[in-house]
TrEMBL record:
PANTHER family named among the record's database cross-references: ABC TRANSMEMBRANE TYPE-1 DOMAIN-CONTAINING PROTEIN, TRANSMEMBRANE PROTEIN
Short name of one Pfam family: DUF900
Name listed for the protein in its UniProt record: Esterase/lipase superfamily enzyme
Coiled coil stretches, renumbered: none
Segments traversing the membrane: none
SUPFAM superfamilies: alpha/beta-Hydrolases
Superkingdom: Bacteria
InterPro entries: AB_hydrolase_fold (IPR029058), DUF900_hydrolase (IPR010297)
Length: 383
């Protein structure tokens, strides 16, 4: 097996001082040797369930406010070598050990939370890394930046909404292609989550053996847009991987952002109904004027979307599921965002998320108006 680290250096050179950050990733995209970036818009050649891991060194640009979509530059991409092995499971262990060990070790020693990020449709590998860097930069816990672990599934890269304004011709089929790719990527996401869980369990065993207090750092999950469809299939695959046992509760918070999922998804275990087993609290951020999801609803003949009006019902759902209406704060800096990117660009939403991560009770979060105390809220525009 190869013992050499694969390392890609982009045109911008080394990261620049305190504006540099490291984004960890797993991806089941196709690896193309000697290409920059090294991952393309199709599956791993061995199948959609096989993933590679690594990290990207990213720099925050000097004045990101002017062009928020270009606020971060990828300086280098490090891909862990894929060791030869007789089975896919053996490759998985050998290929991911170093990355997951480093991630969990840093979380413990540096006392930093972990954010697991699943991107949406119409996203290249580079776009995934840049948006993960935005979460690293903005979703602070106090003054500390989280460690971000992004899973990049092979959505087609592109610009704009990705639906087309009328849902016709190639743009329509591109949407369905991304939807199929997200579904097929569920097993790879589940396998990477299982590996992360393995490391957390090992750390817990070490604590018990040393009679030490357990690690106090938290893991938060964020799924954006069609990433919620991928999450559904990851939950189902993870349950299959652990032979139908109850899923482990590893996430403190799950943030479902502008979810391109059915409005009743949290009601059913064959959709997102398994998520309360894994997360202590689930926060559904939605906007009725989200143009991307309106197009998904109308032109793709999808049911009502979770990211438009929130859960179709709230009574009967787990009591730790909350709806947060972002309609008043969904507009961002460019028409192509389609009021679909507020989770990473609107200061009011970022401020809301930071308070959730800090552990504030839902009724105590600044900037919210309760629509139904304890369950449903609306974020108000600043000022």
């Amino acid at each position: 097996m190869s013992l050499e680290v694969v390392f890609y250096r982009c045109v911008n050179g080394a990261p620049k001082g305190d504006r540099a950050m490291r984004i960890y990733f797993a991806t089941n995209r196709r690896y193309v040797e000697a290409s920059i970036p090294p991952f393309r818009d199709r599956y791993n050649v061995e199948g959609p369930a096989i993933y590679r891991v690594g990290y990207a060194e990213v720099t925050k640009n000097a004045d990101p406010a002017e062009k928020p979509d270009d606020a971060f530059t990828i300086d280098s991409i490090h891909v862990e070598p894929e060791a030869s092995a007789d089975t896919a499971d053996a490759k998985e262990v050998l290929g991911s050990s170093k990355i997951f060990a480093e991630l969990t070790h840093k979380s413990r020693v540096q006392r930093r939370n972990i954010v697991v990020y699943i991107h949406g449709f119409n996203s290249s590998f580079e776009t995934c890394i840049q948006r993960a860097a935005q979460l690293h930069d903005a979703w602070l816990d106090g003054d500390g930046a989280p460690l971000v672990f992004a899973f990049s599934w092979p959505a087609d890269g592109g610009d704009g909404l990705g639906f087309g304004q009328n849902g016709e011709t190639g743009s329509k089929w591109k949407y369905f292609s991304d939807r199929d790719d997200a579904e097929s990527s569920g097993k790879a996401i589940a396998r990477s989550l299982r590996r992360l869980l393995d490391y957390l369990m090992e750390l817990r065993k070490q604590d018990i053996a040393a009679q030490a207090e357990p690690c106090e750092q938290c893991i938060h999950l964020v799924a954006h847009s069609m990433g919620n469809w991928a999450l559904r299939h990851a939950l189902l695959s993870l349950r299959a991987l652990i032979h139908g046992a109850r899923l482990p509760k590893i996430f403190t918070n799950a943030f479902l952002m502008a979810a391109d999922e059915d409005a009743d998804a949290l009601e059913h275990r064959h959709k997102l109904g398994l998520l309360p087993q894994m997360a202590e609290a689930i926060h559904v951020y939605h906007s009725k004027n989200d143009l991307a999801l309106l197009i998904s609803d109308i032109t793709k003949v999808n049911p009502d979307r979770l990211g438009n009006r929130g859960p179709s019902i709230i009574d009967g759902l787990d009591t730790n599921i909350y709806g947060i209406d972002c309609a008043a704060v969904s507009d961002t800096s460019a028409w192509k965002h389609g009021r679909h990117q507020y989770y990473r660009l609107r200061p009011e939403v970022i401020y809301d998320v930071r308070q959730v991560i800090a552990g504030k009770a839902p009724d105590q979060i600044d900037g919210r108006t309760p629509l139904r105390a304890g369950r449903l809220y609306r974020i108000e525009p600043a000022g």
